[in-house]
Amino acid sequence: DGGTQHLWVMNTAAHHNLSPASFRDPAGCVVYQDGVLKRLVTAEGIGDYRRLMSSGLYERLIGEGLLIPHREEAASSSWPDGAQSVLIPEVVPFISYPYEWSFGQLKDAAMLTLRVAELALAHGMSLKDASAFNVQFRGCRPVFIDTLSFERNDGGPWPAYNQFCRHFLAPLLLMKYAWPGLASYWRGSLDGFPLDFASALLPVATYLRFGSLLHIHMHARSQRKHADPAAGQREIAARLPGGRDPKGPLIGSLRATVENMKPRAFKTEWSGYYAEANHYSKDAGEAKRAGVAEAVERIKPRLVYDLGGNTGEFSSLVTRLGVDCVCFDADPLCVHANYERSKREGDIHMLPLVMDLSNPTPGLGFDLRERLSLFERPQAELLLALALIHHLRITWNVPFRRIAGFLARLGSHLLLEWVPKDDPKVRAMLSCRKDTFPDYSPEGFLAAFGEHFEVERAHPIAGSPRTLYLFRRRP
Length: 475
Description:
globular, single chain, alpha+beta
C-alpha cells in the first residue's frame, strides 16, 4: 500500500501500532513501535521478499536511488503473530500525495515507477502494482517506498498496467491538454482517473499520437469490450513489437509516451507574479528577504512551511540554509516552476506542493484515515505567511480568528506579512466589491491573532506600507 510510510497510527495488540493506510496488501503491513517505523512481512509475502533480496534487484534499486533502503530486524519475541520478517525502512520526512503534485512531479514519479518495473523484469521479477501512492519525494527527488510491491515474473499479463494508466498516464495527459491543476480532482477518486472519463475529455489530437491512442483510447475501448482484463491487455500488447512476455513491450511503450510529454504553456493568475510584480520596491524586497533570514536564524527550525509561497523565492532562502521547507501554493504552474528549478539546482530541502489553503487537504480514503489531512502531517517550527492574509480574509472571507486558529494548528512560530487597506493590492481587491471588512485593521488583526499567538517582533517593511510580524504560538 503506497500510503504506508506515514506515522499516524492506531493501537493494535502487542504494542504495535498499525498504520490505518496499511491493510490492503496480504504480503505485509506497516506498524509503528516504540518510535520506530517497521514493515512486517507475512507468510504470503516472504517468498517474494526473499527473491527480491537474493536476485540482485534490491541492490540495483538502492544503487540507483530508486527505492527506500531498509535493514532487517533480528528475530524477537516482540514480533506480532504471523510476522516472518521485520524491516526497518528509512523514513520519508514529509508525506505528500499525487493530488498535491505538479505536472513535473507526477511525470517524474511515473518515470521512476517505469524504471523500477523495467529493472524488476531484468531480475526475473515483476512490479505487481503501479500506484502513484507508492512514490514519495525527498525534496525534489522521487523514491519508491513499497518494498513488497515485487513478485516473481510469471510471464503473463502485467497486473499493474491498468493502474499505471489510471494513476499516471491519464492524469498527465489531462494536465497537459485540459488544465494543469486537474490532478487536484484526484481527491474525489483515489484509484486514479477512469480511462473512459479520460478518453472522453481528451482532445482529438491525442488520437493522432500513438501512446495516448493505444494506452488511453484503445485501452478504454478494450475495457468495454472484454470482461477479462488479461484478454484486453493481450489485445493491446499485440500491437507492440516484442516477445512472448507482454510486460516489457507495454512498459517500454509507456516509458516512451511519458518521457516525451511536456506541459502546455498555460497562463494563470499567479504564474508571473514575481516577474510582473510592481508593488514592491527594491528596498522592500530586500527588507522582506532579510526578515525571513532573521526569523530562520532566530528560531533555528528543522521544518518550515511557506504558505502561499508561489515559485519559492522565499522558500529558497530557507533551503539554502540547509532547512527543510514545504512550499504550498494553489497555483499548479507556480509549483511546477518551483519544482523544476529545485531539480536543476539539486535542492534536496525543497518540497513544492499544490494546496489551496482555503480548502486544504482533508483526511481521505476508507474510514477517512488512509491518506493524511494537512493537520496530521508534521508541524513546522516556522510558518511563512507572506502576502497571504489579505487573500484569506478578503478573497475567501475567512474571519481573522479562524485564520489564526488554522495557522496555530500548523506550526509553533509564524512570520506574517500584514498588508493594510491602503496597500495597492488590497485597494485593487476592494475596487470591485463592497468593503464588508470593518475588522481589517491592525487593531482587529492583532486582537484576533492574540488569542493564539504572542508578538515577538514587528518590523515595518522599508519602502512599503506592509509590516512583518513574528509570532510565537501561545502554550
